[in-house]
């Protein structure tokens, strides 16, 4: 009897599990062996026995959780087959953040690809997404509705720079997720020719330093000195999303509140957060790219993990592709309202359950 | 249309009044005629055209997008106009945002090109991904331009409609407005679809808001007029003075304020004149500085401030207008009162409901307001009157420069001369000392107000030698409102404020006790207050909310409340009305936090019966400022 996809990957309490290889992918609870797609806190947790991930992801986890975030670790080289138990796995770039990867799991000619989070849009801070043909594609669906069509990032950065030109006396406080989005915004600003210092909230410092060590050029990024905030007229300041509404941001000169996120596509989202300058910059695939990617993988079957599963499953049906939602507990979008906020009140310790799923350590000021 | 759309987009996110003003001014200075005039009309409610119904828009979208995907999207986004704007398959008119140009990124030297697909294929694939029904829209485009659909055009190798057809023309706002006001109903869908094809996301959103009559971007008519006036260094009142003689697109107005034209002489024989407003008096500090002899006192009526203006047009026909305080023409809502304007002149006063000579409370007046149709029954049950307290013009003479004392004498003579049952005089409240005035304020019925005391919400002080000045000059007019009602309520929810207070939980929903269906007592929300406290108190309240949060709903937090826990807020308010929108069935007028009762246990907060009694008995039976006797016990 031929191998079925469910022999390669199944759903357990801890998350996706490969019975033939004896490992989990992005488990939300501590497990013996974990393969990690990328360094965001809802996918990469501390406390596993052994971790296999790209070198960048391992270093990101070490910066976030300390060097002892797991017992043993192994670096996965992109494109290189690695034998685990009865399966072969291969990591391929996902284009989401620095070090992010899809994981292909293969046995007896059947291949399943776990996308992790991914995007197809250009990002100067990480390798571009690579299409891996497969039988079963496990996709995210954070922006899985046709209303999500992300604009060109250069337009959004131009919007920010135009506002800085219009209000040269006001500080521009840009909320951005501390891993990935913040560094992408910095790199995009540099591409647009912005050469003044970009000020950072303390919570962004360590990861930004890591990006620089990995060879991403971000220019001068001084940390905001609390006592100097009132003097930063016309400055661009990056901070975690939770801080744009915080008392911390009110000490800048007449701050303009900006937020770089795919959620800014929807007005109500921006208004709920009190955002005056929404910047539609997403690290996830938008709807056209989700659809395009599914087709390009040639997958006969699609499993949809977190996000707006219904619409994508429906669309697959109209295209003659079998699809089902995987209701994975514990994955959230790292940018969802409340997610970063709750960081200050819950501790993302070694064994966070689903409740603390979307928590990001760096979001706490 | 694009400039207007981007203005609305910016305004929708901008909380600060001054920044809004700057955006508006910038737009009015740079947009040409007639574009800016129609924009001004859109923001001042001056446009009338055939509005598009939601069903029409839904139909247009569902002809282009899988209805299931559209429904899921609409549920998620919540707003039909925005969902449509985001989901509309833009055929080539939208660089950057559409799926076609997205694939275009792959053509460059960027990392995407490493993904390895051919250009043509990438275009076709992403196009289909975004819009399963693209071929339908393409066919429609073709039929519109009269071309015959060629075989193969819909095939996967086709680079898309934008390459085969000339790009649709982005309409001007003027074109949209003029088309909408002349189009036949049957042609409306076609026009709308053409425009939606041509506009970008922001443009589509603004267009849909406009055509559905839902243009709410936080700009009042007054603010828009202020921005126009500022172009010529004028105050908003200068625009108000000429406003009612003008019509969209207001070219003479813009010519005047930009310095290129004469002041547009108003052709309206019954124009609005900006109202004079008062400041609240501070009992502790202001009275000591004021001389009672220099002031005249009168009742402050709890009605609607109106201006009654009459005149004769060129044909000698009588023109009668009723304006609200902000200059809105509300004559249509009060034909019974408008009939009384048989004179030439302008009276300032309060619109009230009188029954058998007795002034009714605001609750009664409320039932006459915001009605779609003014029925005979409504006119009979709620007859509108005006209680006049100032006269601005009479028989073509501008009386506003005269001192109040002289105007009052002219007013008394004028009203006596009218001898009309619908218009009477607001009596003066005589006093020699501030103490006497305080006594009159505390008990109007005892000083001649009689049964009308119900509709009195305080006293007004007017400096006898002051001219009638538009706006709110400090000094000549003061209002001294009656003591408010008070209730002790428990904080239940808190919401973040806006602008400067956006980092603070500054809007509080509070509740009072009532009997629970399953026995015992429960708190039921009765209102929301967001002012009345100092900045220092706000910081403490904010900290309290953060430390006592039990649940989060987006920007709203639920705080701990119950018999043994919770924060008591003393709420001041002006009255109670029935409300079907509130769970408790009552709604307060002007609630605000008067004291924070850190000391008071939540179990000792007031009960709903207190509010219901105020509602049922009418306000007359409750001594203003005091609690009911039962509550004191």
List keywords for this structure.
heterodimer; A: 365 residues; Metallo-beta-lactamase, Chain A; Rossmann fold; seven-stranded mixed sheet; six-stranded mixed sheet; 8 helices; disordered C terminus; B: alpha+beta; DNA ligase i, domain 1; D-amino Acid Aminotransferase, Chain A, domain 1; OB fold (Dihydrolipoamide Acetyltransferase, E2P); 3 domains; 24 helices; MBL (chain A); exonuclease (chain A); RibonucZ/Hydroxyglut_hydro (chain A); ligase (chain A)
Give a brief description.
Chain A is an alpha/beta fold and about 375 residues long. Chain A is built from eight helices and 18 strands. In chain A, the strands form three sheets. Chain A has a seven-stranded mixed beta sheet with strand order 7-8-9-10-11-17-18, covered by helices on one side. Chain A has a six-stranded mixed beta sheet with strand order 1-2-3-4-5-6.
Structure characterization notes:
The complex is a heterodimer of chains A (365) and B (633). Chain A has 365 residues and is of the alpha/beta class. Chain A folds into two domains: 5-147 and 283-334, Ribonuclease Z/Hydroxyacylglutathione hydrolase-like (Metallo-beta-lactamase, Chain A, 4-Layer Sandwich), CATH 3.60.15.10; 153-279, Rossmann fold, CATH 3.40.50. Chain A has eight helices and 18 strands. Chain A has a seven-stranded mixed sheet with strand order 7-8-9-10-11-17-18, with helices on one face. Chain A has a six-stranded mixed sheet with strand order 1-2-3-4-5-6. Chain A is globular, with a radius of gyration of 20 Å. Chain B folds into three domains: 2-211, DNA ligase i, domain 1 (Orthogonal Bundle), CATH 1.10.3260; 279-481, D-amino Acid Aminotransferase, Chain A, domain 1 (2-Layer Sandwich); 485-632, Beta Barrel (OB fold (Dihydrolipoamide Acetyltransferase, E2P)). Chain B is 35% helix and 20% strand. In chain B, strands 3, 4, 5, 6, 7, 8 and 9 form a seven-stranded mixed sheet that branches. In chain B, strands 12, 13, 14, 15, 16, 17 and 20 form a seven-stranded antiparallel sheet that branches. Chains A and B meet through α6, α7 and α8 of A and α5, α6, α7 and α8 of B.
């Amino acid at each position: 009897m031929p191998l079925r996809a469910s022999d390669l990957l199944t759903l357990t309490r801890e998350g996706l599990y490969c019975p033939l290889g004896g490992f989990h992918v992005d488990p939300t609870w501590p497990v013996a062996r974990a393969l990690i797609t990328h360094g965001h806190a809802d996918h990469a947790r501390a406390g596993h026995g052994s971790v296999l991930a790209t070198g960048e992801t391992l270093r990101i986890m070490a910066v976030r959780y300390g060097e002892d975030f797991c017992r043993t670790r192994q670096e996965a080289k992109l494109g290189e087959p690695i034998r685990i138990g009865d399966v072969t796995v291969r990591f391929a770039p996902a284009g989401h953040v620095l070090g992010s990867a899809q994981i292909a799991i293969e046995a007896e000619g059947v291949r399943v690809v776990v996308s992790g989070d991914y995007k197809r849009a250009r990002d100067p801070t990480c390798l571009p997404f690579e299409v891996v043909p497969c039988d079963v594609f496990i996709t995210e669906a954070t922006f899985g509705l046709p209303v999500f069509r992300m604009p060109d990032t250069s337009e959004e950065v131009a919007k920010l720079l135009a506002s800085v030109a219009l209000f040269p006396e006001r500080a521009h406080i840009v909320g951005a997720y501390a891993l990935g989005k913040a560094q992408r915004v910095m790199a995009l600003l540099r591409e647009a020719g912005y050469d003044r210092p970009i000020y950072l909230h303390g919570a962004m410092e360590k990861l930004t330093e890591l990006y620089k060590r990995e060879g991403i050029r971000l220019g001068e990024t001084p940390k905001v000195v609390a006592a100097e905030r009132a003097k930063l007229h016309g400055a661009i300041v990056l901070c975690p999303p939770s801080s744009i509404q915080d008392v911390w941001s009110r000490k800048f000169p007449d701050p303009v509140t900006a937020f770089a996120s795919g959620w800014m596509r929807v007005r109500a989202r921006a208004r709920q957060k009190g955002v005056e300058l929404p910047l539609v910059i997403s690290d996830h695939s938008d709807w056209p790219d989700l659809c395009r990617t599914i087709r390009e993988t040639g997958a006969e079957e699609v499993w949809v993990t977190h996000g707006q599963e219904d619409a994508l499953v429906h669309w697959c049906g109209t295209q003659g592709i079998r699809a089902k939602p995987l209701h994975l507990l514990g994955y959230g979008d790292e940018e969802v309202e409340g997610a970063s906020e709750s960081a200050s009140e819950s501790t993302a310790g070694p064994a966070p359950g689903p409740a603390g799923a979307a928590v990001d350590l760096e979001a706490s000021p | 249309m694009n400039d207007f759309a981007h203005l609305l987009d910016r305004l929708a996110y901008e909380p600060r009044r001054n920044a809004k003003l700057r955006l508006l001014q910038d737009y009015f200075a740079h947009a040409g005629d007639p574009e800016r005039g129609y924009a001004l009309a859109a923001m001042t409610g001056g446009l009338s055209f055939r509005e598009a119904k939601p069903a029409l828009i839904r139909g247009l979208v569902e002809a282009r997008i899988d209805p299931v995907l559209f429904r899921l999207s609409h549920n998620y986004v919540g707003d039909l106009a925005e969902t449509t704007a985001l989901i509309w398959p833009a055929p080539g008119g939208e660089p950057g945002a559409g799926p076609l140009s997205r694939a275009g990124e792959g053509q460059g030297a960027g990392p995407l090109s490493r993904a390895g697909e051919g250009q043509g294929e990438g275009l076709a694939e992403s196009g289909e991904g975004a819009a399963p029904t693209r071929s339908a829209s393409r066919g429609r485009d073709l039929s519109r331009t009269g071309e015959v659909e060629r075989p193969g055009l819909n095939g996967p190798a086709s680079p898309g409609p934008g390459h085969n057809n000339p790009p649709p023309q982005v309409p001007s706002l003027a074109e949209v407005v003029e088309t909408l006001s002349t189009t036949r109903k049957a042609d409306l869908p076609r026009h709308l679809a053409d425009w939606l094809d041509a506009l970008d996301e922001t443009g589509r959103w603004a267009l849909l808001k406009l055509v559905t009559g839902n243009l709410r971007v936080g700009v009042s008519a007054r603010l828009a007029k202020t921005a126009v006036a500022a172009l010529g260094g004028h105050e908003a009142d200068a625009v108000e003075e000429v406003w009612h003689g003008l019509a969209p697109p207001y070219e003479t107005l813009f010519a005047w304020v930009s310095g290129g034209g004469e002041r547009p002489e108003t052709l309206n024989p019954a124009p609005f004149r900006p109202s004079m407003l008062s400041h609240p008096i501070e009992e502790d500090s202001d009275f000591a500085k004021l001389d009672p002899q220099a002031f005249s006192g009168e009742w402050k009526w709890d009605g609607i401030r109106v201006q009654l203006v009459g005149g004769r047009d060129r044909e000698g026909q009588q023109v009668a207008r009723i304006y609200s305080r902000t200059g809105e023409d509300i004559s249509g809502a009060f034909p019974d009162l408008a009939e009384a304007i048989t004179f030439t002149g302008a009276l300032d006063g309060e619109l009230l409901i009188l029954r058998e000579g007795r002034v009714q409370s605001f609750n009664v007046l409320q039932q006459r307001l915001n009605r779609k149709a003014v029925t005979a029954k409504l006119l009979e049950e709620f007859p509108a009157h005006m209680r006049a307290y100032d006269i601005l013009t009479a028989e073509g003479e501008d009386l506003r420069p005269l001192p109040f004392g002289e105007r009052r004498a002219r007013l008394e003579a004028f009203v006596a001369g009218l001898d009309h049952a619908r218009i009477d005089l607001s009596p003066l409240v005589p006093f020699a000392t501030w103490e006497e005035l305080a006594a009159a304020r505390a008990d109007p019925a005892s000083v001649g107000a009689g049964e009308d005391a119900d509709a009195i919400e305080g006293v007004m002080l007017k400096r006898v030698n002051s001219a009638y000045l538009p706006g709110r000059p400090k000094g000549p007019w003061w209002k001294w409102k009656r003591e408010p009602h008070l209730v002790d309520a428990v904080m239940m929810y808190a919401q973040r404020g806006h602008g400067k207070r956006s980092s603070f939980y500054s809007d509080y929903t509070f509740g009072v006790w009532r009997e629970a269906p399953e026995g015992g007592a429960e708190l039921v929300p009765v209102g929301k207050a967001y002012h009345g406290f100092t900045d220092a108190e706000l910081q403490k309240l904010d900290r309290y909310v953060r430390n006592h949060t039990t649940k989060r709903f987006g920007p709203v937090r639920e705080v701990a409340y119950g018999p043994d826990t919770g924060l008591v807020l003393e709420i001041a308010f002006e009255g109670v009305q029935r409300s079907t929108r509130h769970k408790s069935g009552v709604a307060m007028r002007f609630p605000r936090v008067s004291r924070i009762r850190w000391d008071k246990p939540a179990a000792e907060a007031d009960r709903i019966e207190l509010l219901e009694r105020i509602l049922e008995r009418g306000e007359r039976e409750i001594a203003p400022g005091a609690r009911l006797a039962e509550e004191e016990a």
